[in-house]
């Protein structure tokens, strides 16, 4: 039987674990679009209390073929971290480019209160984050998105911007036509008008929003400056580590750039191409009214999204609240909890 923990210190050795299977069941139980809206709201709530969080750039271990990262933060009551990798070469080997898991712990006792898969959850929260940025920065009448890169993120991005921002049309392009066909099939029945495109020039035609989500671990130029018209909002979410970008620097130079956490984005985002003091606006300031977002209809706004630990914290906090009273988790015997805290060896002896 499940023994659900609270956020308060607990003597229970059991920690709720949300597996991939249970995460998918929970998402369908809530509904994909409602959950994307909920995650966008949770992220917005936590960005509104930005100053209460510990903040540090993610800690990366880089290799020639990918990166493994830890993303920690705490609001003083809860501590959370995510383990995540990024290996673009995995796709050719039939593996996921990105996998992840996360943990939430009680700061007062140090006891974990949630362990969760975060491959599926990261896809949901990444899309929700793009929707938060788009809602804050795109023109209010924006209804058509160009989705460049039709891999694992494309469907989540499309549904999140539909659910949160009200887009009704998605133009899709990938260098691999099979990826576009996959996205078209998965989004059938979503209520979105879907337009498959064969070139970059075709996909951006008439788009109010451009989202780039490509996987190559390289300095790419997916978009050149001449392709980006006035008034467009760009979500550049594929560049998320040093040496990996998607936009020509001239696009960045003439855009109003909005970021999550500058010390991290300057290392990993599109602005790694720019001078160290290139001006950016932190998105949390826009969400709380401390800074201006879009200032004119003709302005090009760029969300240089690399993913930040507070977003993962928001997602874990949300999942913890949603599994209470459900069967969408398993209890793990995760914490050694002897009757006498000083007698861990005695606990081991008795087990023998």
Strand order of the largest sheet: 9-8-7-10-12-16-14-15
On the 0-100 scale, what is the average pLDDT?
93
Alpha plus pi helix count: 11
Give the DSSP E fraction (strand runs of 2 or more residues): 15-25%
Considering DSSP H and I runs of 4 or more, what fraction of the residues is helical?
A: 25-40%
Would you mind describing this structure in some detail?
- The chain is of the alpha/beta class.
- It has an eight-stranded parallel sheet with strand order 9-8-7-10-12-16-14-15. Strands 2-3-4-5-6-1-17 form a seven-stranded mixed sheet. Strands 11-13 form a two-stranded parallel ribbon.
- Strand 2 and strand 3 form a beta hairpin.
- Helix 2 packs across helix 3, helix 2 crosses helix 10 and helix 3 packs across helix 4.
- The relative contact order is 0.18.
């Amino acid at each position: 039987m499940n023994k659900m923990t609270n956020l308060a210190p607990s003597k229970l050795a059991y920690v709720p674990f949300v597996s991939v299977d249970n995460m998918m069941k929970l998402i369908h139980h809530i509904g994909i679009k409602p959950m994307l809206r909920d995650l966008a709201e949770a992220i917005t709530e936590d960005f509104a209390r930005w100053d209460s969080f510990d903040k540090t750039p993610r800690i990366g271990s880089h290799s020639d073929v990918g990166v493994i990262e830890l993303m920690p933060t705490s609001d003083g009551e809860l501590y959370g971290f995510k383990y995540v990798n990024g290996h673009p070469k995995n796709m050719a080997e039939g593996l996921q480019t990105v996998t992840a898991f996360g943990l939430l712990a009680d700061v007062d006792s140090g006891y974990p209160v949630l362990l969760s898969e975060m491959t599926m959850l990261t896809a949901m929260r990444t899309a929700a984050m793009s929707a938060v940025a788009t809602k804050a920065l795109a023109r209010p009448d924006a209804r058509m998105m160009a989705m460049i890169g039709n891999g694992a993120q494309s469907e989540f991005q499309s549904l999140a911007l539909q659910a949160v921002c009200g887009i009704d049309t998605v133009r899709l392009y990938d260098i691999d036509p099979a990826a576009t066909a996959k996205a078209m099939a998965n989004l059938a029945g979503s209520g979105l008008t879907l337009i498959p495109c064969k070139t970059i020039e075709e996909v951006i035609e008439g788009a109010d929003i451009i989202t780039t989500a490509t996987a190559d671990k390289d300095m790419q130029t997916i978009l050149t400056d001449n392709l980006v018209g006035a008034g467009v909002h760009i979500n550049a979410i594929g560049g998320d580590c040093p040496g990996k970008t998607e936009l020509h620097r001239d696009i960045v130079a003439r855009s109003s750039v909005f970021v999550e956490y500058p010390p991290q984005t300057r290392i990993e985002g599109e602005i790694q191409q720019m001078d160290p003091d290139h001006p950016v606006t932190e998105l949390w300031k826009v969400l709380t009214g401390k800074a201006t977002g879009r200032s004119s209809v003709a302005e090009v706004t760029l969300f240089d999204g690399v993913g930040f630990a507070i977003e993962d914290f928001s997602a874990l906090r949300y999942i913890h609240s949603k599994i209470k009273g459900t069967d969408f988790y398993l209890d793990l015997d995760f914490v050694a909890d002897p009757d006498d805290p000083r007698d861990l060896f005695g606990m081991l002896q008795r087990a023998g």
